[in-house]
């Protein structure tokens, strides 16, 4: 009952992003937004999709390196195919949980299910660390450029956060033996890789390069639209946008991405319709880039309810 209620809440929260997008377009106007979108040619769309495909290929190479380090005999082609399927599933399922459907496609190659989970968690950790580093750089850049962060006049919120942290640590200490019993086998599985410094560095470089391509698409499309903006500011700002789209209030970043870009464009005194148009073009590129995964999924389908059985 509790899980069903949670899923219902998660489903309805997704509409927050759609409401945000509808409100923005209502304020700006469809005609103005469409006029901005027409600035991009079909050729530029193809280049944008190609950039994303190269980035996803690099991510599949990283996943292969990680999987091999856990003793999973994953080849290049299978890694590419399953990664694209996982990418497609991640974007049609709540909370991107479909990405873990990759485990179903490689279940015969897994030493244990925990090893499989560990390889995917490690794969996502590379993305998260890279995203946080670029986002931190973005905050510093915007702070120096626009002084966006200011000291609070009241510190009551900080006090409550500190108290919450203390309570959490006390609970963790109180039930440490129980937590250790549950976490220990997972930690052992997670640490059973042989990545080492070289492979870890290789994975991090691949991650950074793929991230530059994925978020650099915003800059390429802005250039194609003739938008005169500080491209370093736009590039770094999109990483903060990437963090925000992880919030469970949006599907494929709809609404959150547009709102964030409007804020960035306002800092540079640029029209909101260009920000919304750029965001919708990126959304279109996302949809097209999922086509290989959709085709491979159609050729080798799994039942979505099977995702619930991954343990």
The biggest beta sheet is recorded as: none
Low-pLDDT residue intervals, each spanning 5 or more residues: 1-9
- The ordered H/E elements are HHHHHHHHHHHHHH
What fraction of residues sit in β-strands? under 5%
**Secondary structural class:** mainly alpha
**Share of residues in helices:** over 70%
Radius of gyration: 21 Å
What's the pLDDT, averaged over the residues? 83
Can you tell me the overall shape? globular
Number of strands: 0
Please, how many helices?
A: 14
Rounded to the nearest angstrom, the distance between the terminal CA atoms is 20 Å
Chain-wise SSE layout:
Blueprint lengths: L1 H12 L1 H14 L1 H8 L4 H28 L6 H15 L11 H4 L7 H34 L9 H19 L1 H15 L5 H29 L6 H14 L11 H12 L4 H18 L1 H9 L12
Helix pairs in contact: 3-13, 4-5, 4-7, 4-10, 4-13, 5-14, 7-10, 7-11, 10-11, 10-13, 11-12, 12-13
Description:
The protein is an all-alpha fold and 311 residues long. 74% of the residues lie in helices and 0% in strands. The protein contains 14 helices and no strands. Helix 3 crosses helix 13 (272-289), helix 10 crosses helix 13 (272-289) and helix 11 packs antiparallel against helix 12 (256-267). It is globular and about 55 Å long. The chain starts with a helix and ends in a 12-residue tail after the last helix. 31% of the residues are buried. Mean pLDDT is 83; it is low at 1-9.
